[in-house]
Amino acid sequence: MTIDFASDPSTSDLAPAGHWLSSRSAPLSLSDLPSIDPARLALHNALHVARRPLAFDWYGRAASLHLLPDTADIPEACKIAIRVGKTSVVLSGSARAFDRLGQHPDRRRTLDEVDPELAAMWLEVVWLEWLEPLEATLGADIRLAPSPPVLSEPTMRVSVVFQLGDESHPLALDLPLSAAEMLLPLFDRAFVAEPAPANAVVATLRVETGEQTLTLGEWRSLRPGDMVMLEAAAADEARLNLADRFGCRIRFHETGLRLSEPLQRMTPRPVPSAPREARAIETPDVTATHEDEDTVDNETSTAPPEPGVDKTTLADRDRNDSSLKNETAIGSNVNGADMNGADINGAGVNDLPVRLTCELGRLEMSLGELRQLGEGSVLPLQRRPDQAVDLVVNGRTMGRGRLVAIGDAIGVQIERLALGEGRAGDD
């Protein structure tokens, strides 16, 4: 397949007439890309972060300085050197921009009507009330000169627009790297950083009804019908979780989920290295209570228990699994790996902690919408808590269950599992 750029009017400027290019792209090399010195990358980004404009009074008129992108077209009809100690920076702009910068009630002529040396001296006098505080802060004299020097060291450009009433005058400041580093703290104070709100960025809210930390061995031993006690679970309350960074309590409402508080920063939850000790409970939290199977099924699920459910407790099942492994030849394996070995497929992997979370669903909202949430806000609820919950293990959906009351506490009864595939929901 070939493409004739000359035959397409929309691409006629990309290749000369009669020129044919293969649709196969040529390899991209570093020399084809714009080059940025790694040593100046951090400084460049610090200078060009989004910032608020600097507003000030200019002899009775409202004025401000706004940052412009690097690619802004700046007229360079006039240039002036600003010497800060032994370092020089160069200010460029149009003749009209410099004329406005030299505006003063006592001035009788425009700057282009006087000698360049006199114009530089005049600007230094007009700017004196700003230059003197800078000299005190930097501990260096600041002088203006009409002839900008040729800067030998690499420079960085900061572009601004001088706004005076309804007039706009673009300016460029070329700084040696040493001067940029020296002036960056002053720059931060004058132009306060104001990152873009990014209101259109979409985030996912997880509706969580409870959680528990298990060992991998405990999780692998679960079967449909088993029950797991949940931590931090309540019958009439759940929690919104935003990327494990922000969260809030919510209550079930007839029209959806009502926030009990605004979204707040969450304390990071460390994964315990020994789940049973971390829970500090004498009796195991993971139970397979089958003594009254019919009662549990009637109270928690209208679906009958799946056939072939093991009626033993998890402790018995673990012991049986261990006995079976001891009786099996060393060459036996799971997924082709030796379970008696010392690698990741060995029996010791059963002690790894896993975090089991029960989710009612997930909501996608933009950051702009999230910022508007507060106490009393109502969010849609796709699934009632008495219907079903997703079993999410270490962030991945691996089963489906139903909330049950276990005494005065809340637990979840396993309905479906996908230990290998990693998905056991409606889809």
Automatic annotation (TrEMBL):
<dbReference type="InterPro" id="IPR001172">
    <property type="entry name" value="FliN_T3SS_HrcQb"/>
</dbReference>
<dbReference type="GO" id="GO:0050918">
    <property type="term" value="P:positive chemotaxis"/>
</dbReference>
<dbReference type="InterPro" id="IPR013385">
    <property type="entry name" value="T3SS_SpaO/YscQ/SpaO"/>
</dbReference>
<dbReference type="GO" id="GO:0030254">
    <property type="term" value="P:protein secretion by the type III secretion system"/>
</dbReference>
<feature type="domain" description="Flagellar motor switch protein FliN-like C-terminal">
    <location>
        <begin position="349"/>
        <end position="417"/>
    </location>
</feature>
<dbReference type="GO" id="GO:0003774">
    <property type="term" value="F:cytoskeletal motor activity"/>
</dbReference>
<feature type="compositionally biased region" description="Basic and acidic residues">
    <location>
        <begin position="313"/>
        <end position="324"/>
    </location>
</feature>
<dbReference type="InterPro" id="IPR001543">
    <property type="entry name" value="FliN-like_C"/>
</dbReference>
<feature type="region of interest" description="Disordered">
    <location>
        <begin position="263"/>
        <end position="332"/>
    </location>
</feature>
<protein>
    <recommendedName>
        <fullName>Flagellar motor switch protein FliN-like C-terminal domain-containing protein</fullName>
    </recommendedName>
</protein>
<dbReference type="Pfam" id="PF01052">
    <property type="entry name" value="FliMN_C"/>
</dbReference>
<comment type="similarity">
    <text>Belongs to the FliN/MopA/SpaO family.</text>
</comment>
<dbReference type="GO" id="GO:0071978">
    <property type="term" value="P:bacterial-type flagellum-dependent swarming motility"/>
</dbReference>
<dbReference type="GO" id="GO:0009425">
    <property type="term" value="C:bacterial-type flagellum basal body"/>
</dbReference>
<dbReference type="InterPro" id="IPR036429">
    <property type="entry name" value="SpoA-like_sf"/>
</dbReference>
